[in-house]
């Protein structure tokens, strides 16, 4: 009997607690101005691959903070929409899987919309367009893709540059070797393992400015390399981001970011 009363009391107390919980929740979402604000400064988890100066990188001499064109852009967008951002640095080829596994709310990493990617994630409107370069050691006498016959050309794993390198490899008889990080590719160029590497112009120029043993020439590609913000498929963020990105383009804010971050002005 005692046990039964105890059980009854327990159930009663749990019931009251649950009811209190609901009441409290309802109170919190009753929609006053401050609540809306609190809800808006929601933290978004952002994935990036900080090996891509000047778009996203860490200036290790100064701090361990991720900085760059894309980071500024993400912060501008977040400010306008009232979000806070929390960045995670990971290899470029882990970014799309990270979105799919709900580790990130969005990715900004100089990523180019492609048909294959579009099947598993969503892209914002494009905020930037770049060209491709073939980077070579200065003493190599390589000035066209044809000169790379029988040589090794590097590219970043899972990048459109890797796809391009593979296409050019077939046409010009060289082999492609991929690395996870751009600095690894630069290293292989300097130590002679790679005789060339496909890297986009702005990133290449950034490395050339710091390595006078490297040089580059532009390569013709069919599809332009746009950059866009990347979302989980079906994400509500896309519509709000698109609107702000378009506004930032129209207001000349993207041009200001280019001036701030690019070594060589276009
Ligand atoms: N635009 C190229 C792509 O989407 C390369 C981007 C690499 N980005 C980076 N943060 N490493 O495949």
From TrEMBL:
Keywords recorded for this protein, A-Z: Signal
Top-rank taxon: Bacteria
Family per record: Belongs to the bacterial solute-binding protein 3 family.
Localization, UniProt: Cell envelope
Residue ranges annotated for the Solute-binding protein family 3/N-terminal domain, each copy included: 43-265
Protein name (database record): Transporter substrate-binding domain-containing protein
Species the sequence originates in: Ureibacillus galli
Keyword Signal: yes
Keyword Signal: yes
């Amino acid at each position: 009997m005692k046990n039964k009363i105890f059980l009854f009391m327990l159930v009663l107390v749990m019931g009251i607690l649950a009811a209190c919980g609901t009441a409290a929740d309802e109170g919190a979402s009753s929609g006053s101005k401050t609540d809306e604000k609190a809800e808006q400064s929601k933290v978004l988890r952002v994935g990036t691959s900080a090996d891509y100066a000047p778009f996203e990188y860490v200036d290790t001499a100064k701090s361990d903070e991720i900085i760059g064109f894309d980071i500024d852009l993400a912060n501008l967008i977040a400010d306008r929409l009232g979000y806070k951002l929390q960045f995670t640095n990971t290899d470029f080829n882990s970014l799309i899987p990270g979105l799919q596994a709900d580790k990130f709310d969005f990715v900004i990493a100089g990523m180019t919309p492609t048909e294959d990617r579009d099947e598993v994630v969503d892209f914002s409107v494009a905020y930037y367009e770049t060209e491709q370069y073939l980077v070579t050691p200065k003493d190599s006498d390589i000035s066209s893709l044809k000169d790379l016959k029988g040589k090794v050309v590097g590219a970043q794993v899972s990048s459109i540059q890797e796809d391009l390198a593979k296409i050019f490899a077939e046409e010009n008889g060289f082999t492609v070797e991929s690395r996870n990080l751009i600095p690894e590719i630069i290293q292989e160029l300097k130590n002679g393992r790679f005789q060339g590497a496909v890297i986009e112009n702005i990133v290449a120029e950034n490395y050339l400015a710091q390595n006078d043993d490297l040089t580059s020439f532009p390569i013709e590609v069919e599809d332009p390399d746009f950059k866009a913000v990347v979302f989980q498929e079906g994400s509500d963020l896309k519509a709000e981001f698109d609107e702000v990105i378009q506004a930032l383009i129209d207001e000349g804010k993207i041009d200001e970011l280019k001036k701030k971050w690019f070594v060589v002005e276009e």
